[in-house]
Amino acid sequence: MAVRSNAGSLALPSGIKGRGEYVRLVFEEAGVPYTDVGVTGGMVSIIDFCWKGGNTGFPVRAPPAIRRGDFVLCGTPVVQAYLGREFGLMPADPRAAAHVEQVLAVVTDGVAEGRLAFHPKDFYASHKTQVEESKPYVKQYGEQRLPKYMQHWEDILRKNEADGEQGFLIGNSLTVADLAVYHYMAAAQQHYRAYFDAVEAPLAKAHQARIAARPRIAAYLSSGRCQPWDTDSMM
Ligand SMILES: N[C@@H](CCC(=O)N[C@@H](CS)C(=O)NCC(=O)O)C(=O)O
Asked: Among 65, 101, 137, 165, whose CB has the most other CB atoms within 10 angstroms?
C-alpha cells in the first residue's frame, strides 16, 4: 500500500481544524495531495463514511480517518505514525521511531485532558452548556497541566540539542512528532491563551514558530485548505 505518490483521501471533521489538523499537516508537509472529504462533502459524507455503510474497508471508530483504495485507517496517532513511515517523516531507527510514537501518545494525552476541562459536566455535550462549571477545570489545566506538557517538549528539545542535533524533537530531520507538538501548542495557544503566554518555554515556542515558518506549512496555513479553529472546545 503506497500513499506516497498519489492523492490520499481523508474523512476529517468538517469546518474546523480539530484532530484532523494533525493529519492535514502530515500531508501538507510531505507535499502529498489529498481530498479533505469533510470539506468537499460536508458532515453528511463523514457520517456516511464512518458510520452509515459508506466505508467498505476496515471499520472506522471515529474520524479522522484516511482511505486509499480499500485501505482505511483511523486513530490520530496511529494515522500519523503510518503516514510518517509512508512519507519519510519517521526515523528508520526503531528506537528513534519509538520516541516519535511516545511523543504522539503524550500529545494525545495532553489534548484529551485539555478537552476534558471544557466538558466537566457532560463530556459529550457542547462546552456552551457548561461554561461556568468548566472554569475551575480550565484554570487547573492552564496553571498545572499545560506547563507540564510544555516543559516536556522543552526537555525533549534540550536533550536533542545536547545530543548534537538542532531544530527538531528527535534526530536531525522533521518527523510527525514535530508536527503533532506544533499543533498541540497552536491549539493550547488558541484555547488556553493567557496560560500559554504565561508559560516560559523558549525552546518549545521557538520550535512552534519554526514549524509554522516551514515553506509548505506556511503556504498551507495561509491557504483556503486551512480550516478555522473550533470555537466550542479544544479539538
Ligand atoms: N481517539 C480518537 C478520537 C477520535 C474522535 O474523538 N473523533 C471525533 C471527531 S474529532 C468524533 O467524531 N467522535 C465521534 C465518536 O467518537 O463517536 C483519535 O485520536 O482519532
From this structure: 65
